Amino acid sequence: MRARAVPVLVLTLLAPLLSLVLGVPPAQAQVVGGFDFARAEVAVTGLQVPWAMAFLPDGSALVSERGTGRVMQVRPGQAPVQVATVSGVSASGESGLLGLAVSPSYAQDGWVYAYFTSTSGDNRLVRFQLSAPQTQTVIFSGVPSATIHDGGRIAFGPDGMLYVATGDASNTANAQNLDSPAGKILRMTPTGGVPSGNPFPGSRVWSYGHRNVQGLAWDAQGRMYATEFGQNTWDEVNQIVAGRNYGWPTCEGTCSNTSFRNPIVTWTTAEASPSGLAYANGALFAAALRGQRLWVVPLTSGGGAGTPVAELQSSYGRLRAVAAGPDGWLWVATSNRDGRGTPVAQDDRIIRIPPASGGTDTSPPTAPGLPSASGTTATSTTLTWAASTDDVGVTGYDVLRATGASGGSFTQAGTSATTTYTDTGLTAGTTYRYQVRARDAAGNLSPVSGTVTVTTTTGGAQGGCTAMATTQTQWGTGYVIQPVTVANTGTSARDGWTVTFTLPAGHAVTGSWNAVLTVSGQTVTARNAAHNGTLGAGQSTTFGFQATRPSGDTSLPSGYTCA
Asked: Is 215 within 8 Å of 286 (Cβ atoms)?
């Protein structure tokens, strides 16, 4: 990123600034790129400099926070929940916790990948599982780091390989040096190795001559694109071809040197400073920081660019990340608390833009088939249904849930891009009813499916259970308790556990991971998550939480009991 003086144009900026103060976007958006920007909505608030988003199979998103090193799980309309903290993050300037990616085989392996600037003085890549987030394995390290130009976007390509965008780390010579991983787009296996098919034998380098790439995306034909920060004149969108040189530091923007590949789009640096990149509906979506807008870039059949259109201009401030969600909506994250923005009380936020409705597609999908339930435990159940059909195409499904065998209203429990969904965090010995409906790209909703009734198991009393808490860290106004070790001391397996404990007066839980916490007064009840409820005889699992307390108060929670 660059720090530059911005001219003050009072008349043209007055309306957008008033909109920022009030947290309300100007009414100037339109339907473009398959999304209805006039119906953009704030879905998540209270994040601290979000940098990347990656979706889990249940439709929720993981979000990295650059300065805190936290990985937050977010769902529309709900408060963010901390599920991991990446160890050894050094956050200064533009560095810190940057890219996130979820394994394409997450349902089987549970891997989450994170790229960050480390306290060891490099940029590196780790992977971990949310069931044990404190165990983080370094799979690639040694990328030069600096307070600027750290790149940081990571993504799995359609070939199943992991792509990593790096910056030149404020040393322009790195970009042309094939022996340096800086100023490159790297391609590696999910374990960090060099895959076959890379253009330079024995090297992870996929393309080079980059200044600072922070966005990666692939179109429906599998063609790769990247956003890149220029220095003083031109920002870029490039179509990435294996082994090609993109010109930095000799070229910024388009140039006549045939040794370098030219961008398909350029903008002035005041218009863009492009970071995140997404693809949907035949168009690229580039999140602009200094430009405070979302650029929509229609793609031609040959992979070139049509005329870009600016959306959300000055509506929500600086935009860092953009992703096409499994719910069919476009997700955009702000970066107003990064020291260069003007935050409002809700910042930082995630904005969701719905698929376009109306137009020529007014036919809804058919109703999904009657759901069936399987694998029901004390805290979760898996639903499966027959697919809907649509004249254009189904983009996803909404899973609706009501509590009880009858009565009550159905509310949305989650979304799925496929015909299966696992609902977690349920209460043992409770009856639920489920329905499913389908969505298409125009926003048309199908009739709901038939209703399936599910009763979770009671968890049983298969033996003893203990809970032992460890204080990981504490400060004047708060603390982190991790791990709380839950052990099955019985002789048979357990199908769920519940831990209760007492908070001192004035203390409040602000986040938790690997358990579902509810608070009544000063009593906290922690129930197992879907992935750690089953414990064999002698087995144990862990969870953790964070809490605040009055200044000067050194007391900690007590009375941990397990059932």
From this structure: yes
Neighbours of 358 (CB within 10 A): 11
CA 401 to centroid of chain Cα atoms: 25
- pLDDT tens-digit map of 9-36: 333 333 343 343 334 444 344 567 889 9
Token pair 């089953």 is found at 534
Instruction: Please tell me what DSSP assigns to residue 174.
Output: G
pLDDT in tens, 504-521: 999 998 888 888 888 888
The burial of 27, by beta-carbon neighbours within 10 Å (0-12 exposed, 13-18 middle, 19 or more buried), is given as exposed
- Cα–Cα distance between 387 and 397 in angstroms, integer? 9
CA–CA distance, 50 with 295 (Å, rounded to integer): 19
Q: Among candidates 92, 40, 63, which has minimal Cα distance to 276?
A: 63
Q: Which residue has the tokens 């299966």?
A: 420
Q: Give backbone dihedrals phi and psi of 21, rounded to 5 degrees, phi first.
A: -60, -40
Largest CA distance in the chain: 75
Determine the pLDDT at residue 442.
67
Listed in sequence order, the residues at least 6 apart from 367 whose beta carbon sits closer than 8 Å to its beta carbon are 388, 437, 438, 446, 447, 448, 449
Query: What is this structure's pTM?
Result: 0.63
| Cβ burial 381-402 (10 Å sphere, 16+ → b, else e) | bbbbbeebebeeebbbbbbbbb
Strands 540-548 and 558-562: unpaired
Q: Which residue has the tokens 């720090």?
A: 3
Is the Cβ–Cβ distance between 416 and 396 less than 8 Å? yes
Model pLDDT for residues 110-119, shown as the tens digit of each residue: 999 999 999 9
3-state SS, residue 373: strand
How confident is the model over 269-310, as pLDDT tens digits? 999 999 999 999 899 999 999 999 999 999 988 899 998 999
Where does residue 317 rank: exposed (0-12), middle (13-18), buried (19+ CB within 10 A)?
buried
Closest of 533, 536, 541, 528 to residue 492, by C-alpha: 536
